[in-house]
User: Fold this.
Amino acid sequence: MSNIDKRWEGLTIDGELAVGVYYAGSRHKTFSMRIPLAGDLIDVQSEHPEASLHVATMAIYHRQLLSLGDIPAEALTFDLLRAELAETDLALLGAADEALEKKLAPPSAASTVGEKSNTPLSDSAIDSTK
Assistant:
């Protein structure tokens, strides 16, 4: 996983699959996933125009995977995932995708710290300082 492209710095999440993908005699579980790009959805819709939501979702996760264990990038194909990825692990990739979105979401306006209060001090609070 050390050969990750520098353009994805800060835009990835790492995780571990429960079952893993069987490839070349062993199960590969550790993964690194990048943020989804608009082009991912466009390309998946072009490649799988009649696909179900599940197929399209897995195809997008496939595009987001930067690494999966020691599987070479050229061998980490949609067909390999389709044949070897457990449903449980598909859900884990979905959870990782959601966690990545939350990680990159801007802080909400409601959670700002240190802003001046609009509530005036009560008389008792003012009197206690005398």
About this structure: The two ends are 63 Å apart (CA to CA).
